[in-house]
Amino acid sequence: MSTSQFFARPQLADCVPDLVATARGDKKATLVIKNAKLVNVCSGEIQDGISIGVQGSRIAFVGADASHMIGADTKIIDAAGRYVAPGLLDGHCHIESSQITPTQFARAVLPKGTTGGFFDAHEITNVLGLPGLRLMLDEARQTPLAAYMQVASCVPSTGPDMETAGAEIGPAEVAEAFTWGPDMIALGEVMNFPGVVFGDEKMIGEIQATLRAGRVADGHYTWPVDDWRISAYAASGITGCHESVNAEDVIERVRRGMYAKMRRGSAWHDVAESIKAHTDYGIDTRRMMLVTDDRSPESLVDEGHMDFVVRHAISQGVRPVTAFQMATINTAERFGVARDVGTITPASIADIIILDGNLADVNVVMTIAAGQVVAENGKMTVELPEFEYPQEAINSVHLTRAVTEQDFVIEAPIQSGELTARAIGVRENHVDTTEDLVSVRIENGQVALKVEDGISKLAVIERHKGTGNKTVGLASRVGFNVPAAIATTVAHDCHNVMIIGNSDALMAQAANAVAEMQGGIAVVTEDKIVKLPLPVAGLMSNAPFEQVAEQSRAVSQALYQAGCTMNYAFMTLSLLALVVIPELRISDLGLFKMTEQGFVKVPLFIEEQ
């Protein structure tokens, strides 16, 4: 029997006769959990002495005594007074950002209590188009996860005049993807928010295709929330957004009928401030959700997944049951699937976690997915099959030639002296950057940097179509204090080859190492090179997640030793090519700045204006 059959999630209508018969006791349960302390996210209370009866993949009974449905073949789990809660749901997550495939992601998060998620696979879609999205869906379907996929809305994130992606998605592609099944749940984050506000035909068409398919649309809005533009964005029908960084952001989104998704990724620490909308201002939490967005593989091992986010929210003063609601029923209701997931109630799918100790500790000791025990005491108890990727998915780096030192030369409009230039200012634990104006020396008509300047070069080379497009700019606060470079094909969201460094020679070496691996990360110093191969679309590894986590940890350590000491530094650096985030970004087609009017291309040197 295949994994997808074993963890089947049949339609409720097909299960009704068996569920009702089991609740009566005429049909014996396949699983009974007794002596549970139920975290009831529907009523917001803790119920002692509860039993839960399961028939196949769904719950048939919740009450004080399930003895009438226990038969000779019924599996019995004695919770012994421990807390039992619905499996945790991630309301906004990019699996690819964890640098592991859906199968390995499931292995990593199921023991932590995550039983489902709403996954925006716009990373692989930017590389491979709809076929890449379909690969993610097909692989996720063979895991025990309740894996709901979203159609990537912004491929590329802005437009072909600003960046080069491996594909392009429009209204027709969105409509097609929604025919693949009900687990194609929503339109992924609409990052081109200026396009929505100012009536871009493609963006409006994608939202219309989503609404006509009876799905919901997710947002990504980073303008201030104190003017008319947030209402224009909401008027499009977008009803969820994860870009809240403070209480005001949450409050204004909720007031306009949106679900405010509060993010605690590896390097995005937004919950502490955004949760104050509830803890300080008393905003109703039913439209507030906890999400991860991006989690590095080593942070999945070291900190956890949604269990970590819930624990963190509780530490900020949120009542434990309320925090669980923000990661279960609120999320399910937002996407219209609360009949299936997000609660422990009769008829719901049996995605259940058992926790040891205090509820606030979120210490998951058993995970049940679709009525089957899949993890216990931090380890998977079932084997998941390998997923076969086609050649086009693992040969996706197409450079026109080898990269050389000359590719990183920045020509200046003067022969010698100093010029003021724009540098992308990196901010630790934040997705946004600053536009830093820095003074750079010019020698022989070229920018001349020294290690002690504290400024790095930052380049993006197109890798999908062999165009040869390339931009070289500057970055500040990266931290390199020795000659060093990092190259990566994980460069949100178009995922071209991005190189950051203070040595042209090492930058070339790092770029060529990544190309030779057909994708991944390479950190190069004068005495060593550290690599993390990511052969699937240049984004993911299908190696065991434990191995990838250690390789990612080695990348972090190499960056740290070179002076880049930011928390989960790679996660922050990987966003420097994401044009839709303020304030200054780079793509293969130039430098772009976020303004009141939208995205504007700007020159590197101020004097050029």
Automatic annotation (TrEMBL):
Keywords: Hydrolase, Manganese
Catalytic activity, EC: 3.5.4.2
Catalytic activity: adenine + H2O + H(+) = hypoxanthine + NH4(+)
PANTHER family to which the protein is assigned, alphabetical: ADENINE DEAMINASE (PTHR11113:SF2), N-ACETYLGLUCOSAMINE-6-PHOSPHATE DEACETYLASE (PTHR11113)
HAMAP family xrefs: Adenine_deamin (MF_01518)
Enzyme type, top EC level: hydrolase
Family: Belongs to the metallo-dependent hydrolases superfamily. Adenine deaminase family.
Keyword tRNA-binding carried by entry: no
Organism: Paenibacillus motobuensis
Domain Amidohydrolase-related: from-to ranges: 83-374
Domain of life: Bacteria
UniProt cofactor(s): Mn(2+)
Protein name per its UniProtKB record: Adenine deaminase
Domain named Adenine deaminase C-terminal: residues: 433-596
